């Protein structure tokens, strides 16, 4: 009888603890798309370092062939409300789910857009057959000079 | 490197093509990464991007370059406190009139992408910077909005963002409290595309803005600068801008 009572208390205690954890832990919105090769734990721990590194690489060195870009985060991590992706103003925003919990105030979205954009043209290198590519432009200039 | 979790500090050190180490004293060293890496992508120090603007081809009533720049980079919608003194302007049309002859001439003015930019000299945080390929930019991650660069720029090319910005373009992140200016559409150039103003000027049938590599002697812009007269704005300052003008 004492054993059963102890068991019941243990079970109730554990479920109670689990519920308490769920209530406290951030509710991370489910993402779409393929999971990160490095695993979620790695990204949760290191995303800020990866993005800090890449921002300097992109802006200062012009290196745009990078793995972690803010725009690409939202391809999979945009949270929608009433059919529209929410901005950082909304507490349901993917970044805010954890940052609000951790009381970390990120200022990325003072300048960067916090929603997905349809403008993905400049993610890919231009091909010479595109009229606004440098190659096509220089070819037009050369043709003009020959005339 | 598909999985960056496997990248070690050693890999990162190895990837720096040339590492020069100077020993100042025992235990104190200066290390410089970089050098010439044939596989390096990004801003190419062997190039210098520039523009040559032919004022004779620029129509006074046309401002397609300004419109294209606004659309491309997402500036130009002003809030409730809008005023001509404080509104953002990455590029603006300027009309000049010779008082003696009455000749008027119009041309766009934007960041002149100086070789020795005064905005970079005065920046207290290193936010104002010049890339290896000569493009002058503001690193808004480091900009504190002090506006020294706006004071230093002789071309009035820089603007301060006074009001909140929402729904920015992915092409040009921008926000209140930082300084910004023409980026020569660096996001396009890095992906092999011409700047938006050049494209729109050509589309309007004027082709008044010639874009190219100033370091390449065979480029159209270098040949035009070699064979025809052109000026640098405020040439007396010796800044060697990457933007030049003809028939001004």
Number of helices of chain A: 5
Portion of residues in beta strands of chain B equals: 15-25%
Overall pLDDT metric of chain B = 88
Give, in order, the helices and strands of chain B: HEEEHEEHEEHEEHHEHE
Radius of gyration of chain A: 24 Å
Beta-strand content bin of chain A: under 5%
Overall form of chain B: globular
Number of domains of chain B: 2
Proportion of residues in helical segments of chain A:
40-55%
- CATH class division of the largest domain in chain B: Alpha Beta
Total domain modules of chain A: 1
Low-confidence stretches of chain B: 16-20, 32-39
* Main sheet overview of chain B: 3 strands, mixed
Could you explain the architecture of this structure?
The complex is a heterodimer of chains A (147) and B (248). With 147 residues, chain A is mostly helical. Chain A has one domain (2-116). Chain A contains five helices and two strands. Chain A has helices spanning 2-24, 40-61, 70-77, 94-102, 134-146, and strands at residues 80-81, 84-85. The termini of chain A are far apart. Chain B folds into two domains: 4-34, no CATH class; 49-246, Alpha-Beta Plaits. In chain B, helix 2 packs across helix 6 (196-203). Chain B is an alpha+beta fold. Chain B is globular and about 55 Å long. The relative contact order of chain B is 0.20. Chain B has helices at residues 9-15, 64-73, 118-122, 148-152, 186-189, 196-203, 220-227; strands at residues 18-25, 28-34, 49-54, 91-97, 104-110, 128-130, 136-138, 159-160, 179-180, 209-213, 243-246. Mean pLDDT of chain B is 88; it is low at 16-20 and 32-39. The N and C termini of chain B lie far apart (51 Å). Chain B contains seven helices and eleven strands. At the A-B interface, helix 2 and helix 5 of A face helix 5, helix 6 and strand 10 of B.
Main attributes of the structure:
heterodimer, A: 147 residues, two-stranded antiparallel sheet, 5 helices, B: Alpha-Beta Plaits, 2 domains, three-stranded mixed β-sheet, 19% helix
């Amino acid at each position: 009888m004492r054993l059963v009572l102890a068991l019941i208390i243990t079970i109730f205690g554990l479920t109670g603890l689990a519920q308490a954890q769920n209530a406290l832990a951030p509710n991370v919105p489910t993402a779409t798309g393929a999971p990160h090769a490095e695993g979620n734990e790695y990204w949760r721990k290191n995303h800020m370092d990866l993005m800090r590194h890449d921002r300097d690489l992109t802006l200062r060195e012009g290196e745009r062939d990078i793995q972690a870009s803010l725009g690409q985060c939202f391809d999979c991590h945009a949270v929608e409300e009433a059919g529209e992706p929410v901005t950082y103003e909304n507490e349901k925003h993917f970044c805010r789910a954890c940052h609000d919990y951790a009381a970390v105030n990120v200022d990325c979205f003072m300048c960067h857009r916090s929603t997905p954009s349809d403008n993905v043209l400049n993610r890919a290198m231009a091909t010479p057959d595109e009229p606004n590519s440098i190659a096509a432009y220089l070819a037009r200039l050369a043709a003009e000079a020959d005339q | 490197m598909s999985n960056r979790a496997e990248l070690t500090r050693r890999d990162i050190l190895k990837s720096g093509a040339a590492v020069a180490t100077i020993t100042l004293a025992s235990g104190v060293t200066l290390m410089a990464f970089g050098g010439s890496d044939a596989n390096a992508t990004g801003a190419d120090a062997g190039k210098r991007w520039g523009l040559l603007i032919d004022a004779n081809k620029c129509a006074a009533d046309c401002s397609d370059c300004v419109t294209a720049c606004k659309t491309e980079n997402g500036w130009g919608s002003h809030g409730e406190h809008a005023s001509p003194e404080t509104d953002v302007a990455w590029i603006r049309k300027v009309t000049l009139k010779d008082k003696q002859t009455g000749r008027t001439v119009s041309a766009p003015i934007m960041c002149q992408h100086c070789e020795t930019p005064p905005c970079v000299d005065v920046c207290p945080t290193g936010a104002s910077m010049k890339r290896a390929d000569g493009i002058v930019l503001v690193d808004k991650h480091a900009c504190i909005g002090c506006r020294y660069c706006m004071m230093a720029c002789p071309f009035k090319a820089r603007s301060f963002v006074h009001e909140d910005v929402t729904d920015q373009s992915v092409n040009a992140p921008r926000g209140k409290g930082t300084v910004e200016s023409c980026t020569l559409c660096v996001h396009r150039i890095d992906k092999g595309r011409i700047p938006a103003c050049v494209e729109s000027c050509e589309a309007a049938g004027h082709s008044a803005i010639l874009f190219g590599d100033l370091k390449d002697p065979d480029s159209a812009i270098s040949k035009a600068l070699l064979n025809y007269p052109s000026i640098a704005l405020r040439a007396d300052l010796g800044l060697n801008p990457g933007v030049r003008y003809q028939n001004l």
